[in-house]
């Protein structure tokens, strides 16, 4: 493969910190490289040096002659006076640019909902980001460097972007460098991962799943120095092997090595014990949304929402930008009043909200971090151990020396860590996380997920990060055409439903005919009882399928007859799941 660009002996230093010291690396044709690391360790600086936006203090960056490099920085570079159309295609007439399939694909995938003649100055921050990304992708580039491209993209947009990069260049041509905390996106597009830490860049083969395994093996070698990190990553690996076997089948690493590493790791969550604790803290009544509808300025945002939230449920909410997710959270939190219907809350509900505005920090902006945590209780029980607030912050990746910083001087990621800790230490029994991945790195995401594994309460998460949703929630719902819909098939089912033509599912937004379909009380109870039975059966089948994957991994790989038998048993279990899910959907339609 041809060499595209490289770096030799790069050194970068700021007044208080050496960011990189003698870093050498290269990008070849066909490379798709994900860049991960803690916030502040230099990921954006590395990207800047490779694209020419940042000049290193020593060393040099070399490029193949005539190489075309396109970059998306985190800074907003749009001219407020230019229209969206001018930013994307200049002065070309529609018949000129519409003949280019790439331009049509990019426009349809990223900015189809934005007015073509709107001036950039009138757009929201998320719309501006998408226009900037689209303008880059329309161009012809040999290497594309992206800094947090999935920010402000919804699940459909992130899925489209992954597919775009899978087919953008011919096989073994072109180069992609991407800084992102979206681990699903990394697994989909990256053939290699660079971890930036301690002034160096450490390469790993494969996407996020393969990176986790290799990092665990590296940490095992240096166990004394990396004990805390190792234990956390072993748990993450257990999730990848047990919770998402399809994801770990793609990277080419030794399955037996993974099994040896996680042999003594307990299940990610003890769901039975957590449910008992949640019921004890909450009782049976949490929050019920009863035939609720909400409108703004004459436009119906949510219609006929019927949702009974139970103790200990862990639910992810999906939906496009503007679909009504924040409105739904507002109904639960009591900050939004419905136009019709009723919201019923249990008497013992104590709500905690991790919002996008860091509102909980507003009153302590001028305080030192140690002053803030000094006002809290001395100890809190977390995962069976008593921790001080400082220890909990450290568990979330907050360095002890940062305790002397003022809250107003903290970086976005540091503020998010402090905000999460204060929210949890208020000891809510219902926790709402609204886009919790904003301003955080993969290390903090892993630490947050680890912390939530032992949190006993009702959890509701709104996020476009499908990895996080699949990791911390047990069920997903979607807001589609103003209605709340359960997703037995998870994110994949949501993407399928969201891709349906708008006019095809018109019956979903229109009143359902009731003459022939209305259920009697007895019939309704029978349907609900069968759905509950199917839910229990699906949970048991999920455990059996996970065990069968483990059995396959442990089996003698030279015993082809035995492997074939086990594979046939696995396929039978999966077919049973498919049959039950079809029946579940059939029954669910009767209740809608």
From TrEMBL:
Pfam families: ABC_tran (PF00005), ABC_tran_CTD (PF16326), ABC_tran_Xtn (PF12848). Keywords: ATP-binding, Coiled coil, Nucleotide-binding. The keyword Transferase does not apply. Residues 524-590 form a coiled coil. Residues 5-223, 287-506 form the ABC transporter domain. The keyword Ribosomal protein does not apply. One of its GO terms (molecular function) is DNA binding. SUPFAM superfamilies: P-loop containing nucleoside triphosphate hydrolases. PANTHER family: ABC TRANSPORTER ATP-BINDING SUBUNIT (PTHR42855), ABC TRANSPORTER DOMAIN-CONTAINING PROTEIN (PTHR42855:SF1). This is Macrolide-transport ATP-binding protein ABC transporter. The gene is yjjK_1.
């Amino acid at each position: 493969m041809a060499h595209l660009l490289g770096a030799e002996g790069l050194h970068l230093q700021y007044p208080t910190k050496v960011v990189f010291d003698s870093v050498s690396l290269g990008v070849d044709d066909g490379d798709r490289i994900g860049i991960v690391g803690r916030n502040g360790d230099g990921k954006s600086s590395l990207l800047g040096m490779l694209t020419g936006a940042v000049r290193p203090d020593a060393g040099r960056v070399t490029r193949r002659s005539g190489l075309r490099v396109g970059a998306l920085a985190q800074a907003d570079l749009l001219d407020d006076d230019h229209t969206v159309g001018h930013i994307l295609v200049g002065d070309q007439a529609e018949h000129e640019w519409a003949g280019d399939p790439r331009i049509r694909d990019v426009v349809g995938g990223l900015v189809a909902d934005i007015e073509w003649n709107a001036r950039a100055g009138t757009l929201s921050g998320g719309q501006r980001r998408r226009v900037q990304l689209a303008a880059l992708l329309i161009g012809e580039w040999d290497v594309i460097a992206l800094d947090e491209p999935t920010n402000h993209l919804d699940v459909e947009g992130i899925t489209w972007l992954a597919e775009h990069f899978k087919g953008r260049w011919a096989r073994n041509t072109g180069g992609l460098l991407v800084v992102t905390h979206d681990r699903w996106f990394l697994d989909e597009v990256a053939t290699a991962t660079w971890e930036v830490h301690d002034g160096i860049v450490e390469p790993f083969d494969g996407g996020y799943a393969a990176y986790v395994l290799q990092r665990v093996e590296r940490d095992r070698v240096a166990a004394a120095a990396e004990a805390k990190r190792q234990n956390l990553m072993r748990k993450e690996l257990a999730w990848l092997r047990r919770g998402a076997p399809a994801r770990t089948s793609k990277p080419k690493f030794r399955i037996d090595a993974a099994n040896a590493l996680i042999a003594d790791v307990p299940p990610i969550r003890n769901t039975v014990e957590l449910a008992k604790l949640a019921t004890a803290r909450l009782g049976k009544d949490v929050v019920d949304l009863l035939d609720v509808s909400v409108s703004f300025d004459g436009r119906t945002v949510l219609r006929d929402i019927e949702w009974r939230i139970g103790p200990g449920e862990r639910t992810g909410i999906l939906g496009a930008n503007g679909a009504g997710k924040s409105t739904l959270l507002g109904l639960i939190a009591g900050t939004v009043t419905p136009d019709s219907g009723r919201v019923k809350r249990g008497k013992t509900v104590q709500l905690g909200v991790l919002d996008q505005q860091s509102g909980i920090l507003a009153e302590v902006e001028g305080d030192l971090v140690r002053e803030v945590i000094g006002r809290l209780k001395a100890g809190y029980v977390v995962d069976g151990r008593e921790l001080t607030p400082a220890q909990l912050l450290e568990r979330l990746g907050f360095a002890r020396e940062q305790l002397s910083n003022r809250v107003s001087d903290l970086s976005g990621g540091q503020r998010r860590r402090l905000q999460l800790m204060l929210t949890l230490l208020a000891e809510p029994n219902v926790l709402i996380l609204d886009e919790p991945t904003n301003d955080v790195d993969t290390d903090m995401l892993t630490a947050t997920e680890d912390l939530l594994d032992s949190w006993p309460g009702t959890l509701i998460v709104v996020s476009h990060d499908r990895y996080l949703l699949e990791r911390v929630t047990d069920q997903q719902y979607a807001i589609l055409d103003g209605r709340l819909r359960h997703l037995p098939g998870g994110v994949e089912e949501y993407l399928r439903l969201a891709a349906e033509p708008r006019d095809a599912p018109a019956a979903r937004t229109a009143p359902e005919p009731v003459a022939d379909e209305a259920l009697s009380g007895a019939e309704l109870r029978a349907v609900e009882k069968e759905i509950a039975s199917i839910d229990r059966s699906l949970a048991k089948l999920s455990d059996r399928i996970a065990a069968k994957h483990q059995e396959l991994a442990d089996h003698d790989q030279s015993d082809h007859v035995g492997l074939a038998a086990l594979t046939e048993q696995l396929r039978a279990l999966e077919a049973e799941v498919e049959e039950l899910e079809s029946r579940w959907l059939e029954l669910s339609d009767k209740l809608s």
